[in-house]
Specification:
Length: 102
């Protein structure tokens, strides 16, 4: 497991881009990132099988960056007791540097 420092930018047309920084881990092919929700509550976000999508930054040592996409199903109430499911794509830019390998 590798310990990393990261910067994660979430792209949104509606709310603008949001940027989060912190400490995370690479476990095999997965990113495990410690984040905080808008209400301040901590949570863990896992990007499964995403390490292959991130590449070494040219002319930099030990710095990596790339884009990730996540497909999320949301449910909204159309009429009373009538719900509609939609799938939306959330796009991210991830930059990280490895702190140490455990």
């Amino acid at each position: 497991m590798k310990k990393i420092i990261f910067s994660l930018t979430k792209f949104s047309r509606k709310n603008g881009n949001t940027k989060t920084k912190g400490i995370g881990y690479i476990d095999g092919n997965n990113f495990i990132l410690a984040l905080h929700a808008n209400n301040g509550m901590p949570y863990v976000k896992i990007f499964e099988d995403a390490v292959k999508l991130i590449h070494l930054v040219p002319a930099r040592t030990n710095e990596y960056a790339g884009y990730l996409s996540e497909l999320v199903t949301i449910q909204s109430e159309v009429k009373e007791n009538s719900f509609e499911e939609k799938q939306i794509t959330i796009d991210y830019h991830l930059w990280y540097s490895v702190l140490d390998e455990q």
